[in-house]
Design a protein that fits this description.
The structure holds 2 protein chains of 2 kinds.
Chain A: E1 3-10, E2 13-20, E3 27-32, E4 37-44, E5 47-57, E6 61-67, E7 113-115, E8 121-123, E9 128-134, E10 142-147, E11 150-154, E12 162-163, E13 184-190, E14 198-203, E15 206-210, E16 218-219, E17 240-245, E18 253-257, E19 261-264, E20 272-273, E21 286-288, E22 296-298, E23 316-319, E24 327-329, E25 347-349, E26 357-360, E27 366-369, E28 377-380, E29 386-394
Chain B: E1 2-5, H1 8-14, E2 19-22, H2 30-40, E3 60-64, E4 67-68, H3 80-84, E5 89-93
Parallel strand pairs in B: 1-5
Antiparallel strand pairs in B: 1-2, 3-4, 3-5
The chains are: A mainly beta, B alpha+beta.
Chain lengths: 395, 98
Amino acid sequence: MSGVRVLVGTRKGVFILTSDSKRQKWDVSGPNFAGWEIYHMKGSPSDPNRIYTSQTSGWFGQIIQRSDDGGKTWFQPGLKPGEPTKSPEGFQIGESNKFVYDTSPETGKPLTTHQWYDGTQHPWEFKRVWHLEPSLNDPNTVYAGVEDAALFRTTDGGKSWHELPGLRGHGTGAQWTPGAGGMCLHTILLDQTNRRRMYVAISSAGTFRTDDEGKTWKPINRGLISQYIPDPDAEIGHCVHRIAMHRSRPNTLFMQKHWDVMRSDDAGDNWREISGNLPTDFGFVIDVHAHEPETIYVIPIKNDSEHFPPDGKLRVYRSRTGGNKWEPLTNGLPQENCYVNVLRDAMAVDSLDKCGIYFGTTGGQVYVSPDGGDNWNAIVHDLPAILSVEVQTLK
Amino acid sequence: MIRVVLPYHLRTLARVGPEVELDVNGVVTVRSVLDALEIRYPMLCGTIRDHVTQQRRPFLRFFACEQDLSLEPPDTILPDAIVSGSEPFLIIGAIAGG
């Protein structure tokens, strides 16, 4: 019987919400890793029981957790209890949380600093993993977007991680500057039709594309206009909040920028604005309907100083025309006194026949619409502030 | 046998109780105790001191025999009471938040 498993990362642990395909009755489990910040968790498309989690703490740093049984049990990769603490070759085990920037001469372009808030150069310092993107066809391969911005990859199920240095080293890295939330690589999109192509987004550097599996990269920000930077149409420096893609149309990308909702139909080479009649085009999330590539969703936020919905009304906006024409979706959502935010990794869609839309708020609610956005229900009301929401459609 | 008291979240990571016991070879210092701790419990690698710099994480402190050793050089020799096991070496998370 089909169903869904919703993976919720919060400020204080992991929660897993499960339901059958009707998505009316829910089982809630958690918290796992109580007291830790969970920036992201995501399941492998090729093995739904394989789930990776980014667990972080201001006290204890970064931890990577992995489940091989759909979230029932967890372990740090390479560190099952009772196993030897050193490999037969004598190498130290315990590096599933070791993210070290590649500054080796072999990369050709060792990069050690980026631009700081005051314009000076500042050392690259690893802080946390913002986003984990499992490979489409290998459960042991996962990409990690980290702060300070860089892209790492594991090919051994999370036991060890290695940077893809071509991104930071492609030429503009020294000019990247952190946004208010830090300098984070928060979005990774994999092209289902071309395994050599991948997109990433960085706040506040912009969007980048590789066409050779991560060896070389180029900025793809033409058409973005950001009035808050010295050169509004600069090659880099844009605070891209999130990008999304429908798997059947990998050349079409949708973007929620700091301000502006944008669209590209040429794999990011050129962007145009599609904000249309939105009440405000500031926001964080954007996603695409699972079966309708021109149906997209955003949640407008009042502005960059007031991170809550306009007029205290929580409204999802849907466009069935790929942008410009938007309709508010309100049925079941609070329409007064609502002052939550919805963070950039906190919206997802399932792929059941009637596409389900999900999002989590900083107020701890997870909302689901089992009918593409027409009607909404709160699955839970009172979780800790929600950082990420992902959905697995289970056959 | 060296006794080490861990903060709550590191106990859950290592799946141990509040205190662990370690054999430490050679001179007993902050560094050698942490080395032994990470070899015995590799899931703690990177959580007490940075993987690369080996610097103590800013929100953790080290105490022994009512002394704050957090700012002492890592090769400072620990008191006899720690070496004998009559007193534990304490790893403490800073109190913060509201």
